[in-house]
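Sample 1 of the test manifest.
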Amino acid sequence: MKYIYIFLPVLLLFSSCSKFLDEYSTDLKYVQNADDLNKLMIGEAFINSVSLSAYSNQETMGDLSETGLTAPWLHVMDDDSEQFVLGFAETDKATPLYKLSGFHNWGQTPALNVLNLSWEDILWKKIYKRVGAINAILFQASKLAETSDNSTLQHIRGEAYFLRAYYYFLLQNVYGSPYRVSSAVTDEGVPLKISEKVEDNYFKRDNNDKIYKQIVTDLDQAEQYLQGYNPATKIRVGIAAVKILQSRVYLYTEQYDKAIAACKNFSAMGYTLNDLNVYSRNTNFTSRSSNESIFTMGPNSVPAVFINDSTATYNGNDRLASSFKASSTLISSYASDDLRLNAFFQRSAKTKSWLPAKYRSWQTPNDPEQTSCIFSFRYAEVILNNAEALAMTGANDEARNEIQKLRINRFKNAAMDQIPAGNQELVEFIRAERRRELCFEGHRWFDLRRYAVNSRYPLPQDFTIRHPAYSFNAQTNSNSSIGNYVLKSFAQDAPAWQVPIPNYAIEFNRGALTNPVRSVRTVQPL
Amino acid sequence: MPSEPGDTVTSRSTSPFIVKFIFIFLAFFAIQLGSKLRAQTVSINLKDAPFVQAAEAISKQTKYDFSYNDRILKKAKPVTLKLVNEPLINALRKLFAEQPLTYEIKDRIIIILDKSTSAPSGLTETPVEGRVTTEEGKPLDGATIKVKGSNFSTRTDENGKFVIPTQYANSTLEIHHLGYAKLEVNAIRARTVTLELISSTLNEVTIVNTGYEKIDSRKLTSAATTLKMDSILTPGINTIDKLLEGRVPGMIFMENSGQVGAAPRLRIRGTSTILGNREPLWVLDGIVLTDPVNVNPQQINDLDFVNLLGNAIAGLNPQDIEQIDVLKDASATALYGAKAGNGVIVITTRKGKVGRPVISYFGTTSFSRHPRYSDKGMYMMNSQERMDVSKEMIERGMQYNGLTQFTGYEKALQDYYAGNIKYDEFKQLTDYYANVNTDWMGLVTQDAISHNHTLSLSGGANGIKYYSSLGYQNENGAIKGENNKRYSSLMSITADYKKFMAQISFNGNYSTRDYTPQDLGVMNYAYNTSRTIPAYNADGSYFFYPRAISGAPYYNYNILKEKENSGDHTDLISANIRALIKYRVMNGLDVDGTFAYNASSNNRELYYTKDTYYINNIRGSRDPRFDLAPVGGELQRTETRNNGYTARLQANYNTSFGRDDKHSITASAGMEAISSEYNGFKINRRGYFPEMGGYFDMVPTTNTGYYQQYMSKIEALGSYNRQLTNTLAWYGTTGYSWNNRYMVNVHIRGEQSNLFGSRSNNRFLPIWAVSGRWNMKDDLLKNVSWVNDLAVKASWGWQGNMLPGQSANMVIQQYPTSDIYYNSQLSKIVNFPNPDLKWERTSSSNVALEFSLLGNKITGSLGYFYKRTEDAFLDKTVSEINGIESYVINSGTLENKGIEVSLSIKAIDNVGVSGSKRGFVWHFDPQLGQVLNKVLNRAINNRNNVLVDNLDYNDYLAGTVQLAGKPLNTFYSYKFKGLSPVDGSPVFYGTEEEQAAAYQEKYGLMKKEDVYLEVMSESGRREPFIQGGLSNYFGWRNFGLSFNLTYSLGNKIRLMKIASGYGTAIAYPQQNLRKEFVDRWRRPGDEAYTNIPGLLANNYLNSPWWTQYPASAYQFGGSIYDMYDNSDIRLVSGDYLKLQSASFRYNFAEKLVKKMGLSSAYVSVTGTNLFIISNKMLKGQDPTQSGSTPNINLSLIPTYSGSINVSF
């Protein structure tokens, strides 16, 4: 049996087989530590940034895919924006107006272009994709924490909880019905999915109460994990972001005491308001280095939605606009001594129309100052949240003092006596101040929705939003006003106060998921 | 009858018909051969004729062969004899009466012996000298002569001669040579006669090589097709895979491009996976080959993908190959494990034979003809017809949409209208354009001459054999500038000494491929460019026409300039070394170890200079802020290095016991470790100047667009990737046989790999199979003389397949570049946990009947297989609320079944008695393979099930939808109704514009899939389900004619697009149109006579109602022209009968060859792809070209080759 020796070298060869059979991949791996999770957060959890380059034409809405701009239409549904038309752009171009007018006019199916061709509203998918990733990250993190817990891991968990809460808040306010304290248990929100497993089933809407409870729970978790932590950079989440979102959520759910509690201690964390009295022209109002900035992610889509009326002379895009501008009602609400008009807006090149421009250095590639329009938090909101909550609880004086903190930094001369003393008037005043302060930051539409159903001071029954409509006359090469698209009050026009869930989701879920039917909207002649 | 096979194929016959046809055919031969057997009488009338003439006459009439030795025959006297219907015995008696010779009859052979020396007793004192030849009379060297009952054995020398010592003069000799039937003969007869060994046929001693073991085909229990390279080698066909066309029943062969080096698609016994790889596994001398470049299975499986990357065997020279074994069932492939689910093709290289060194040279020169406008398949308008279109457009006042640049006739007209030119000049230009007739086809394609040379040296001596070769191939493509060169070499040495056997071989090759970059679309261009546009100006310079680019006015375009300024070049160098050592431990037990190493390096460079459309298009307005290629051109370089090894240790045992050793057991077991590693590097660099050998110039830093937008991308920065696949496996096989009559075998293999992610789902699954065989002849038909052999065999086995990267844990992928926003590395989730994923399992059964009839005149096999894949991987769509939209699950069930018929018929066989002058020979080998494929169950399309899949109409048009009860690759077409009387646009059932409101109401309530089925009809399948070949060989004297007809049935193809894609119904000035448009709709009323739509009258036709809201929710089509090209009137059957090759060969007469000092020589003329009979509606379109592809592929082109083969 000497031939058994022949096997020996082979046995030796295979004795190292444990290594030979180690799973190998250069780029694939399992989650093994907090660093892996951190990379996943960057790759999957935050909203993608898009680098905007100088626009030479009006076709800025060509890419609304997963990697493109995120929901630019959130800017055009409220009463802060209106059509900006000049000259005639060919109808097959993806200009903001042609692409987003369905949203702007609260159409039955908003994701339709001017030629009636449908496009895919990606926000729904995009947010749920991130929620799905966060669910998985949270699951993996809890497994990791069993063996090795450290502060990095805790911060990642806090960040993930915060983002999940924020994403559900966003989904809820876009696609869900407004939160009404009285009927939150039955009002329809969005489907809630927080498990890490892939589920093969048809999803249906969960109620508002359930969604908001989950948001609050997640924020509590986030608060716990991020306690006392404030990152050096504004693009990662710290305790301040959690607090500001808490105050916003409590305000939306009319839990004013909790909102007030969440607004505490910000100045201790070093946040201050910018004094516009020392603002230098044509600089960024919002930026990451600003003391007001708390957290931001993703691009600023304002320059792509509110385009100038002269982009390039060499290819015929001069005196041409097919986009949006600040509405006249908004602009007229600024008092003459309000410093924000010049800081927040710029004038278009040809018609001198008002275009929002809180963030201006967007042409700089990978600008370290880039601040998102929708996905950002800044300190001024804390003041406004606090003031509103105080006013709603009847603490008029404290509310007036609070709002005055903002006003002294926004007006040449802000006098205390300009602030009304009566409770309802004070609330109205704070709401108006909020509109002026937080315009084009993704607040107004959400705020209008909650004011509409506020249990104490709802919007009046005759409240309407009017978006002017124009028709182009080729002979005179001019656009003439033909009337308005009108959004009536919540009581009369409720389905139009929430964005329909995109068709792909409705189709896939085969009847489990439904939208309230919006009425057909046509131009109301002047 | 076989003289008109075309009829049977083009008549769209179904499989039962084919089967019937073959049976009728068989019956015919049975009758023919039977009648010959009965002819036992002789009629001769000879006067002073040579003895040989008499013998030949008798042989011809009786079918008895004569066997004699030249030396003896010299003694024969002239014959004068008259016989009329004399029985054979009497005839012989009369013939030999006058001769100094005598004879004896054995096994239908009349052996002529010398009368004077025939007394056996007196010869014992001299050694026995004999000679062994083939049936053609050529000496056979290396035949083993063994004296029965003793230990003595010897071999024949190069002249076929052998010597047996005196003491064995009365014994029986066993003569054996690989590939020939064994012969037992008395030594006394061996002394005086030349022994003919008859080459083996399928049922005789074909040795099937499975890579792990070599099995006598009479003991084979599994399904395999063995092909000798000598019988399929065709000059002009330069890769092994293409030689298999029509030769292997059950293998579907699809070739979708005639470009040089394009690899065909092979499917052995259907498709048993949906997401996995469907290509067979290539094995060279027992070692699994890997592709030089890793391409993902989805791309390879796409029927429209043209594989120009080369596959695992592209570097092998067919001349170096001895034999190919195609292993088809689970039992044959079990030892290869999971990767062998699609069948295995085992290649055995030549090894050399014992004897003197043989040097042989084989050279081929081939000519291939380029496509011409005059070809039937071209069918494009000429200048005049094209101008007629322009005129109609102008008359009808039709406008181009967004066109700014005019060329040719349109430009002349515009200029004339604008007053820039006078009428005379306009008239002159018009006449000029009408007669330009630029030969684009001729400008971009060429008649190509290709060469192929192989020189080999082989031989062997005591215990050692060697073979070495050097091959050079230079293949020029029909598209100018396309070329494929290959230098290949093979060396192998085998030593066999006492207890050891060792083999060392080396195989190396270097090849280069040159193509025009794919996105130039050379063939599209040649087809579609108006022939009114000149290629050259009168002074010989290029004629340019303006082509629009974004952000700048236009670019001066000429395809010839583009071709000059771009290129796609690939270098591949690869080497394989292999060593095998075998130690015979004791009688019946041996151990062998194999080690093989392979390395290859593939380097692809694709470039565009600064003077190309590609670069100018990127540059746009050339504003430094947006200019992405400010300096020079672009070079895209992709390197892939692949290396790997296989180490294997195997023990083999066989023993016989019992009475007469009737019980026999064989067993093998082994372990192997296989490792394969791919290293890749890819980079795109701009600023490239190919002149002066190629250099990169610096780009000024003021070009902010270049630096910010281009240089930050991963393709510009360059990236490495590495893949390592290690597999450790054990395997075993054991077989028992009783008296070579009843056999049973078991094969089993288990393996583990380092494949990422698969571990956790991959609970260890051994792959196993059982098989058996019953040689029935002795049991059932012992006394039936016309059945020479009859056997039945059956096998059953399990195969498994696992998808890489799927895991029960979450798998993340790290990105090589940082996120610039976060200035940090990032990862993405590639797979959410998939804990329920199981192996995809295929059970496969095989039953076959093998027979040999009428004295081995007809041999063949009839087989049936059934494969069922359960838990097939499918991509299932889940709600996006999960965060992902698609998820892999095990839910499909697939079925593949079919019949395989393989016959080898020696229809006429007058080899002749002397061997030097052959009579007429006709061998006919028909093959038929049928593969029926069906998706049995698809849970995710079941309406009552929770799982759904999101499909769109393109899936139905392209055949990528998998519907229960339908074959894979079933596709659908719109139902053409007619042409609109208003504008000549096509109208389809279920989509009519005037009923749009009613349809919207109806379709709005239906499921999307049902709407598709409502407006579309089932067209058939894209893969054929019956394919086969009819190979024929005619031989007479030194001439041989062989041809191979192949046929393919059962698939449907679309006619080439005329109105959309590369075709168009909007005649832009540069665009040519299909000749079909000559018969187009021109004015109302024409719709009664034609179904060719009119020119696109207005742009609205591109956005019909179903593309608009609310119909867009179930959008079932694109523009109506798109739908027209995808409609049922553009659908034809893809059935064809093709003369795949025909070869005429002349062997130089032996005398002449000897005189020149050669051992053999022949010349041959071969044609491949000579003609094709297919559906008339194709109007010459090659059935390999389908209108489904996004680009026009070059059709298969006929090639004509002349070759010469000499051996020294």
